[in-house]
Every structure is written in C-alpha cells, then in structure tokens.
C-alpha cells in the first residue's frame, strides 16, 4: 500500500469512528486516536488500528479531525505538524472560523494544507461515505485534501470559499436546523391540541411549502416514535446554535429569530443535560407529541 494512503483519524466518537470505518473499507491505511479507551476499543473492533498517543500520528500524510471544540483543534494541529510528512489535515469539526484561519496559516508554514470541512449527514452518512461537507480552503489546499473528501462524501462537498468559510456556513446550517426543530415541534403541538394526529400533520406539511427534513424525517423517525436515538447530542446542537449567534454578532449581525431559538436550546440543555439526544428538544417545546413526554415525566402521547 502506498505510503500516501495512510490517514490518521483523531476523535473516534460516533462520527469519527464511522468515518474511520468508511476510510478503512475504502482501502485506506487508517490509524485512529481518541483519549477514550472505549472509543479506541470500538474502532479496533472494526479493523482500525489505534494509538493512545497523539504524538504517534505526527507526520501522517493525511489526518481527519472529528473533535468536540475549536480549542481542541488548536491543541491538536501543532502536534500533527511536529514531524514532516503531512500533506493535508481535513477538519470535520464544527469549529470556529478564526481557528480555521489560524490553522491554515500554521499548516501552510509547514508545507501542509488545512481544510475546514464540517459535515452534515449524521452517523449514517459517515458510515456510508455519503456525508455532505461545507469546505473552506484555498484552492491548493482543497486539491491536496480532495482524496479524503471524495472518500467521505462521494463528491458531495461544496467549496464555500477561503479558510473559515466552511465553518460559517455549517454553523448557519445547524442554527437553521435548531430553529426548525423548535418550530416544527410547536406546530405539531398545536395540531395535537386540535385532535389531529401529529404524524398526519407532519406528513401533510412535508408535502407542502412548510415542509423540511425536520418535518419529513426527524420528527417521524425520532420524536413521534419516542426513540430519540439520532446519535447527535443535545449538548452539541445547543453549542452550535449558540456559536452561530456569537459568530454573527462578531461581524455586527443581530439575527433575532435565530437567537431566540438558540435561547430555547439553552433552556432544553438545562432541563435535559448535554447527553440527551438533540431530538429531545421536542420534550421541552412540544412534550405532548413525543411518548417521552416532558422532562422528569412519564407522559405517553
């Protein structure tokens, strides 16, 4: 196997572990890192080599980051660049544009490429190589990262603009989804109060101008069923929504409707905790439509 088919995956959680599996199945020589022994064990169980030391991955030709925050990205990238050999670092973290701009500069000074490529599509998309990615990169960096982007998305990535631009658009995507999860829940709550089956209302709305992936898939699959098992945490969505508002305000914008929705996610976070599934927002904005009911209840719809 070519030396340039080696890729490090840093962060082996729900998304990172699935991306590591996809790359492994596509013929890449994958080695993963995560501080969690359980995450490393799970990755090893699907054939991915792992290490408990991030330093072991310095100089790996390609690296994919799937990390909880921009702060951890900032701590990780210098370690990866501390030995020669890195071609491209592809950061799928929902990070901050300032961080990506700084990491691009750092990577370029080491003769490597850095691409911010936050993804959408959840664990199923990560496991099947069918994610969508919002890419912020210079043209040379994009070219360097292309083999990994193709493997993870099947070509479904959009080059938004320069470094950091992928982060901005991904944050806007997530805060729009967050607002939609609130608004669809409230609407279905009204429907139920009128004696209308929320599933019928969601299906009808989804075929009309008010429809969305939230009404067509997320509520029927994860909320109305009461399963709330999307695999994406409420804590992460609340973080992303708040960060989107912060990024907007940094440039002088005041998105009032989105800010109000982000506030409701903070209330849900306080009520349900960060480990709750993000679809459990319905339990605070429309508890009547989910068998899980309101927090601290055993309500059945």
Keywords:
51% helix, globular, 2 domains, 3-stranded mixed β-sheet, alpha/beta, 6-stranded parallel β-sheet, Rossmann fold, N-(1-d-carboxylethyl)-l-norvaline Dehydrogenase, domain 2, 301 residues, 12 helices
Can you put this structure into words, describing what you see?
There is one protein chain. The protein is of the alpha/beta class and 301 residues long. It folds into 2 domains: 3-162, Rossmann fold; 167-289, N-(1-d-carboxylethyl)-l-norvaline Dehydrogenase, domain 2, CATH 1.10.1040.10. Helices cover 51% and strands 12% of the residues. Helix 1 (14-25) links the parallel strand 1 (6-10) and strand 2. The longest helix has 29 residues, at 165-193. The model has no long low-confidence stretch (mean pLDDT 95).
N to C succession of SSEs = EHEHEEHEHEEHEHEHHHHHH
What is the CATH topology classification name of the largest domain?
Answer: Rossmann fold
Q: What overall form do the CA principal axes indicate?
A: globular
End-to-end gap: 55 Å
The level 1 CATH classification of the largest domain is: Alpha Beta
Could you report the average pLDDT, rounded to the nearest whole number? 95
Number of structurally distinct domains = 2
Based on secondary structure, the structural category is: alpha/beta
What's the oligomerization state?
single chain
Which percent range describes the beta-strand content? Answer: 5-15%
Range of helix content: 40-55%
């Amino acid at each position: 196997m070519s030396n340039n088919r080696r890729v490090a995956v840093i962060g082996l959680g729900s998304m990172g572990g699935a991306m590591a599996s996809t790359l492994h199945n596509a013929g890449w020589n994958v080695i993963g890192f995560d501080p969690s022994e359980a995450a490393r064990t799970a990755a090893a169980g699907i054939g991915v080599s792992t290490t408990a030391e991030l330093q072991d991955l310095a100089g790996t030709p390609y690296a994919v980051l799937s990390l909880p925050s921009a702060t951890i990205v900032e701590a990780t990238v210098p370690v990866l660049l501390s030995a020669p050999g890195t071609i491209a670092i592809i950061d799928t973290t929902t990070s901050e544009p300032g961080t990506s701009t700084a990491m691009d500069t750092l990577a370029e000074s080491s003769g490597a490429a850095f691409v911010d490529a936050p993804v959408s599509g959840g664990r199923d998309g990560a496991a099947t190589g069918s994610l969508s990615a919002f890419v912020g990169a210079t043209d040379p960096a994009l070219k360097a990262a292309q083999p990994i982007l193709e493997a993870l998305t099947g070509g479904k990535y959009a080059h938004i603009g320069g470094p950091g631009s992928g982060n901005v658009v991904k944050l806007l995507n997530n805060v729009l989804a967050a607002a939609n999860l609130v608004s669809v829940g409230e609407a279905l709550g009204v429907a139920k109060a009128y004696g209308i089956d929320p599933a019928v209302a969601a299906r009808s709305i989804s075929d009309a101008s008010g429809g969305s992936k939230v009404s067509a898939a997320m509520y029927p699959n994860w909320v109305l069923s009461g399963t709330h098992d999307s695999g994406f945490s409420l804590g992460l969505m609340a973080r992303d929504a708040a960060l989107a508002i912060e990024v907007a305000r940094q440039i002088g914008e005041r998105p009032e409707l989105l800010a109000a929705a982000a506030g409701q996610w903070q209330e849900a976070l306080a009520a349900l905790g960060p480990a709750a599934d993000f679809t459990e927002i319905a339990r605070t904005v429309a508890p009547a439509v989910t068998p899980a009911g309101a927090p601290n209840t055993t309500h059945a719809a």
